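Need residues for this backbone.
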């Protein structure tokens, strides 16, 4: 008695080919594997950024606003410092001029009046000498110490003219100082103060000195 075969074959004795449904499942699985291997960034296209390379899309090309703010602050601070220094120098100059007494100012005015009568250099240039004072001691002003010495044996008054010249030798300012009732052998040291700016530099010159 013949036993049935455990593996039925077709009429020609071969295995039956896989059905259409099984083939479709295999294709779908293959496509799913390809999609998983390429969809790394969720956008459907592979990423081309190399490890350690910055994302240049995030660069704006403009300097940080914090740096601009610091630069502006530094410029403002420098300008404020210069302004404060100028104000301080001006205040020092004013204080120095104010230290000259009213009596000295009156004597200087008298000297100017007296020298209007004098032709030439006057009769007392040998009794007068001038010395510049450091600007650090005068609030930045150009000041000349005029030393007047009565070399006679009588009490006398003196009138002195000091000119301030530029580099070309031109007189740009004139100041008058004086000393009244100076006893024999005594000295007076009034100041001739220029009110011109520090630049250009001026040179003081003793122009006239009259004893009267």
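Answer:
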């Amino acid at each position: 008695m013949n036993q049935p075969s455990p593996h039925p074959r077709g009429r020609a004795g071969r295995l039956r080919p896989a059905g259409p449904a099984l083939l479709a499942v295999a294709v779908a699985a293959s496509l799913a594997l390809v999609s998983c291997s390429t969809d790394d960034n969720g956008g459907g296209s592979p990423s081309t950024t190399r490890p350690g390379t910055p994302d240049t899309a995030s660069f704006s090309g403009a300097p940080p606003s914090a740096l601009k703010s610091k630069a502006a602050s530094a410029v403002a601070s420098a300008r404020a410092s210069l302004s404060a220094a100028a104000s301080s120098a001006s205040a020092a100059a004013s204080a120095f001029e104010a230290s000259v007494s009213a009596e000295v100012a009156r004597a200087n005015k008298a000297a100017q009046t007296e020298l209007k009568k004098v032709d030439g250099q006057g009769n007392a240039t040998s009794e007068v000498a001038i010395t510049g004072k450091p600007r650090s001691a005068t609030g930045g002003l150009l000041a000349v110490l005029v030393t007047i010495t009565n070399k006679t044996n009588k009490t006398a008054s003196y009138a002195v003219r000091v000119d301030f010249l530029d580099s070309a030798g031109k007189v740009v300012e004139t100041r008058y100082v004086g000393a009244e009732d100076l006893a024999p052998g005594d000295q007076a040291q009034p100041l001739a103060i220029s009110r011109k700016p520090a630049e250009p530099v001026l040179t003081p010159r003793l122009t006239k000195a009259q004893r009267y």
